[in-house]
Design goal:
The chain is an alpha+beta fold and 181 residues long. The chain contains 4 helices and 6 strands.
């Protein structure tokens, strides 16, 4: 055997000895996990409370700001719908030729219809006069005798009243029947 072969055999023996040896793991003692102290728990809870409270206050301020913005701009759609009517009235005021009065009257009727349509779109309706006098929706400005109507019936509407949904914006000014006895 040559020197090199002997050396290779020795290396193989060392490798086999290393592989046959069973290593025993070192036992590492773990330190017990320290429980947080009362002061640490209190500080953590206080921090969590302060952060939550600050977040709540920020949300409250944002919602308040959004509420006022909604109130301030609530009439925006209504105003946009009235712009067409305003344009029609502006065009009518520019008419100078006396022969165009028939067109002016037609234009005024279209403008009036456009305005009523815009009101209805936004739940603004005329006060109903059927069913007699209603003190919540009508204001009687005079009483007239009439054989054609019952007592307290609306005889004539002097000024139209309007209501928004169920609230009266302006009561109708009416004359009512007063039966002569």
């Amino acid at each position: 055997m040559s020197q090199e072969e002997k050396q290779e055999l020795n290396e193989e023996e060392v490798q086999t000895e290393e592989t046959t040896e069973v290593e025993t793991p070192e036992v590492v003692e773990e330190e017990p996990i320290a429980e947080p102290t009362c002061e640490e728990l209190l500080a953590a809870s206080e921090d969590k409370f302060l952060r939550t409270h600050a977040e709540f206050e920020n949300i409250k301020k944002r919602l308040e700001r959004e509420k006022y913005d909604a109130i301030d701009y609530s009439q925006e759609k209504f105003a946009k719908d009235l712009l067409t009517t305003l344009d029609s009235l502006d065009a009518a005021l520019k008419i100078e030729d006396e022969t165009q009065f028939a067109q002016l009257k037609e234009g005024m009727q279209l403008t009036y219809d456009s305005l009523i349509k815009a009101f209805e779109k936004h739940n603004i309706n005329r006060v109903d006069h059927d069913g007699g006098f209603d003190p919540e929706k009508h204001e009687a400005v005079m009483q007239v005798p009439s054989d054609d109507h019952e007592d307290n019936d609306v005889v004539q509407v002097l000024q139209q009243g309007y209501q928004y949904r169920t609230r009266v914006l302006r009561p109708s000014l009416v004359s009512i029947c007063k039966k002569i006895k």
